[in-house]
Amino acid sequence: VKVKIPFGNKCLDAIFSVPEKELTHGVILTHGAGGDMNFPHLVSLAAYLASHGVLCLRFTCKGLNVAYRAKAYKTVVEYLKLSDDYKLSGVFLAGRSMGSRAAASVIRQLSQDGDDDFIQGLVCLSYPLHRPKLQSTLRDEDLLFIRCPVLFVSGSADEMCEKQLLEGVASKMKASKKIHWIDKANHGMAVKGRTTDDIMEEINTQVFSWLRENIELEHK
Description:
- By secondary structure, the chain is an alpha/beta fold.
- It has helices at 40-51, 66-81, 98-112, 141-145, 163-172, 196-219, and strands spanning 2-7, 10-17, 25-30, 55-59, 90-96, 119-125, 150-155, 177-182.
- The chain has a single domain, classed as Rossmann fold (3-Layer(aba) Sandwich).
- It is 37% helix and 23% strand.
- Helix 1 (40-51) crosses helix 6 and helix 2 packs across helix 3.
- The longest helix has 24 residues, at 196-219.
């Protein structure tokens, strides 16, 4: 279902992937610095989640400023929260690369405002912890403030997220967290000798099983 979400004096293009059965939870998903919501990994994940009963709303926001992207993401969260078509009890924020930074920023803002009851967790695909070869400056400030569950899916050879550095940040986080490493994958989740479909299947099943665990925990 294609929708346009009002954002300032323009609109954000977005697509709902809707499950056939009754739904309780959703995922909002956005892209990295390049591309848009039709980036193949996002399309694949959205279809997989919807086929397993999780609503997925993915959207496009062009712009290389993280604060601007976070503002757009927050607008999408509000849109879904107030939606009459889909009554959800909670939502997980997810993004790829820069999109995951924007998602983390939104969760930090909403928790500081005391308005994060709707947010159930964060999924970071290829979180860009640092610029390539600039490991001395970490983009970890939002992660350290987050209290909801966090899943990282990163390549063990990601040039923007050195393995030891992410594990070090995770050890300092207050939130419950899990890191799933895609062996030998780079920032674009490509692995020599493996097909994109094969890698996406690994990512999709990891994300869904983590979501299911956290949704079940909430209902206990």
